[in-house]
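Incident review: delayed structure delivery

Summary: a single-chain prediction request sat in the queue longer than the usual turnaround. Root cause was a stuck worker, restarted by the on-call engineer. No data loss occurred. The affected request and its eventual output are reproduced below so the record is complete for anyone auditing the incident later.

Affected input:
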Amino acid sequence: MDPTLVAKLNKTCAPNVSATVFLDHNTFFSFDNEFYNQILLKRGILQLDQELALDNSTASTVSGFASNGIRFQNNFAKAMVKLGSIEVLVGKAGEIRNNCRVFNPAN
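Output delivered after worker restart:
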């Protein structure tokens, strides 16, 4: 992580301080691809976000979204449409996974 950002976060998020930190700290009220540019600059707020740029399975997506804001917005829109078509299972019809990557073991 960028040392300058770490120092800033240490001040903002000091112990016993209730602070809000935006995940995109440059254009926090805009819907754009700046989040991905910040990750490439090692300025991701969450470790999970920073690992997106480092993992072989996601690094090309991060760099693609960082370099092409239209691509990011189009992919985001497609994902939202797809997510909206999912029918939520309720009650005994569904389950909450302990690990989102695998089914829970049968009881």
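Verification: The helical segments are 3-12, 34-40, 47-54, 59-67, 69-84.
Action items: add queue-age alerting; document worker restart procedure.
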